[in-house]
């Protein structure tokens, strides 16, 4: 606690902020740990249905820039509270609404809207509460609190579904628990005071000719990554029969692996250069995609399932190589503000691509099979590397 006090201003509301971040993450961990199995087993979403649902889950990410523009006069704290209320309503809808495709998709979209609003505000609030010169440390502390909350949620699901039988009632119970936690988080969020300014660079598009390759790389990355985000767990559930405990454990292992791998990948980028990393990570990606799409043709089902689980974690780790594109932007930029604005534009481009990949990916799986789906993902990765190979690295004197 003394270390936390040294990071944040004593007159700020950093305690309720960190509490609401922790509780929101715990609620999300419970939700994320069961939602894929709930959609497959209770709502009975098929491959194409899952793509449609993901389309609407990602849609708020695109709409956020317009929402923030309309509500630009509101402080970051006020927007954070609005996000908390919307998340509570969305989570509550999961618990009380009949498990129909339309209603659950609406609930997912609403919850995602609140989540995206909060994501856009957290950094601004944390930076405004931090002591001078401690902004980066404050953001790191907030991220650690968020990770701890999510991991606790995942492990609760692992324990619960290892003991209890999965059923519509069991899933609904955890939605109610997650709703209760979202309500507690919302209450703590109302204790946030102040009028922190939202980061205007998060609402501003910045296009420049020198970043054209970065924009294209974001398109390739967003397209291939969406395949794993949307369909990776769903393959394990529909094709191999993975239960909620297994999926939640997989999420937890992936999060832990990324936590320890992040600084290692960062050092590799600094040592070898962003271009080498962006080109080389595809070699591993192609292997991951081929294993995911064809393991069941080569190995017995149980062995193929384990291989796919290992490859899911491996994909999460190699996705950290996307940090290299941010370093590439920094290398091209003329100011820190330009870096933030350009990366924000890249994230927006990423979101535009992902919502269409979710729809198209569902159609490919349903009509052509998972083999074709992951072949497409591998091809996208190869295109990403081929394009990255054309980058001319600046020579620093």
What coarse outline follows from CA principal-axis ratios? globular
Helix content: over 70%
* Fourth-level CATH superfamily of the largest domain: MFS general substrate transporter like domains
Instruction: Give the biggest beta sheet.
Output: none
- Tell me the number of helical segments per DSSP (H or I, 4 or more residues long): 14
What's the CATH topology name of the largest domain?
A: Growth Hormone, Chain: A
Beta-strand content estimate = under 5%
Distance between the termini: 43 Å
Structural class: mainly alpha
Q: Total domains, how many?
A: 2
Overall CATH class of the largest domain: Mainly Alpha
* Unreliable parts: none
CATH architecture of the largest domain: Up-down Bundle
Q: What is the rounded Rg?
A: 21 Å
Number of strands: 0
Structure summary:
With 397 residues, this protein is an all-alpha fold. The protein has 2 domains: 10-203, MFS general substrate transporter like domains (Growth Hormone, Chain: A), CATH 1.20.1250.20; 209-388, MFS general substrate transporter like domains (Growth Hormone, Chain: A, Up-down Bundle). Helix content is 81%, strand content 0%.
Topology, element by element:
Elements: H1 2-7, H2 14-41, H3 47-70, H4 76-96, H5 101-129, H6 135-163, H7 168-189, H8 212-238, H9 244-272, H10 274-298, H11 301-318, H12 323-332, H13 336-368, H14 370-388
